[in-house]
Design brief:
Strand content: 25-35%
Structural class: alpha+beta
Order of helices and strands: HEEEHHHHEEEEHHEEEEHEE
Helix content: 10-25%
Largest sheet: 6 strands, antiparallel
Number of domains: 1
Number of helices: 8
Distance between the termini: 24 Å
Number of strands: 13
Amino acid sequence: MRTAAAAAAVGRAAAAGRCRPESSVRTESPVRPARLVLLTVVVCALLAGSAGCSGSGQGSGSGAHASGAAGRPFVSAGTARAVVAHYNKVNNTANRVRKKSLAATIETGSVLERTEATYAVYPTLPADQQRELAKPFRYTKVRTYVPDHGDWFAATARTNTSATPRLLVFRKEKHAGAGVHAWRLAALVGLEERLPLPAVGRRGAVATAGVRARSGTLAPARLAAAFTDLYATGGRGPGARLDRGTRPARRALAIHRNRDEGLGHAGVTKSFAGAEPAHSAVFALRTRDGGVLAVAPAAHTVRIEARRKGVRVTPSSAEAVFDGSARARIIDEQSGQLAAALPRSGRPRVLGAAYALTGSR
C-alpha cells in the first residue's frame, strides 16, 4: 500500500470526480470522436498507509462469533506495535521497488489485492503521483486493540505525512514464520468520520462482536451490500438503512447521481452493480457505547456501455493495463473495504471506504 498522504488525496479526488481517467468514444461512422470521462474510483486506497479494527472475523482463518474481554490481550501492546513498525518498514521498500512478492510478505486479502493492482497501473500515473506513491512514511500515534484470544488485532494510527487517521487489522498467518514475520495486514481504511472507541476490559483486552448479529439496522456482514446500493440505486434498496450524512455516503450518492455527466456521447451510459468480494473476511468489535465497529470487504462493477450501434468506448490508460481494446462496453472491477460504526439502535455510519481498480474487461 502507498503512503498515507497520497492515498488520502487520490482517494478523495477520484471519488469526488476530480481524478478521472479519460476514455474516448470511437464510432464506425464519420462522426467526430467524443471524449468520455469515467467517474470510477480508480486508485482510492492503494499502496499501505493509505486513506485506508481487534474483534471477530468472518472468512478464512477466523471465527465469526462474539467474545468477551475478560482475559489479557493474547498479544502484548509492545509486540503489536512491533508488528506495525515491521510492516511500515517493509512496506516502504515494497512501494519503492513495486515488488509484489515483497508486499505478499506483509499483506494479505483485500489489502494485497489493492496493492498488486496499484503496482500494475503505476506506469500510467502522472509523474507527481508516482513520486508520492513511492515516498516513504512513518506511522505515528499508534494505538493497538487486541482481544484475549484469536489470530488478529486492530490498530489505529496516523502518519508523519498526514493527519488522517487509519484503521488497520493485522492477521497472523499459521505458516508464515515467527515473531513479526508471521503477521499480515488484512484490512486498511482511512477514516473520514470520528471513530467510536473500542470497549476495553479490565485486563486490557477488547471485546469482539459477531459479524452476522444485527446492531441497529444492520449486521456487519451486510454492510457491503448496503453501501454498494448507494452506487447502484442511490440507496433505494439496502442502502436505505445507512446514515446518509457521512462523507463516504454522500460521495457515493453523488457519484450515482452524476454518473452520466461528462460521458461525451448521448448513446453511452454508466451503471453500477454489486459484485462478490474476492476476500470475504469481516472484522467486528464492541465499542464503549454498546455498538459495533466493523470492517467489511466491498466490491462493485462500473459498466460504461455504448447503446448505439457502431459506437466503441476506448479504455483509459489505467483500464488499458487490463484490456486495451476499444469495445462496446467497458466493465471495471472495483474492490475495497469499508469501516463503519453500527449503533445499538439506528442507522450505521460508514466512516471510510477504500477502493481500487482491480480489473477491466
